[in-house]
Amino acid sequence: MIPFLLGRIVNRFSKDLDIVDVNIPMTIRMWLGTGSGVFTTLFVISYSTPLFLIVIIPLGIMYYFVQVSTLLVHLCNIVSLLYR
């Protein structure tokens, strides 16, 4: 009975490891492809229209601070719920 259960556990872990071995490289490859495409697009737009940089840099900074402040508000709400 024990070897049967041990085989099922090993089979479960080997299936999970196979999914990780297949999915992680594919996800990284897609992420790098998308990131390089975005970077190339921004470079071409910036090269052809330098005014784009004057607009996009402040917008990017504002977007970053809005995201960080939203995350901090969310974390504060979670902490306040834990210590009630």
Describe this structure in words.
The structure is a single chain. The protein is an all-alpha fold and 84 residues long. It folds into two domains: 1-48; 51-84. The protein contains two helices and no strands. The protein has helices spanning 2-48, 51-82. The termini are far apart. The model has no long low-confidence stretch (mean pLDDT 86).
Compose a concise summary of this entry.
This protein has 84 residues and is an all-alpha fold.
Summarize the main sheet: none
Q: How far is the first residue's CA from the last residue's CA? A: 48 Å
The pLDDT mean sits at 86
Order of helices and strands: HH
* Tally of individual helices: 2
**Category from helices, strands and their pairing:** mainly alpha
Which regions have little confidence, pLDDT < 50, spanning 5+ residues?
none
C-alpha geometry: flat
> How large, in whole angstroms, is the Cα Rg?
23 Å
- Measured by DSSP, the beta-strand proportion falls in under 5%
Question: What's the structural blueprint in terms of helices and strands?
Answer:
Layout: H1 2-48, H2 51-82
Main features:
2 helices; single chain; 84 residues; flat; 2 domains; mainly alpha
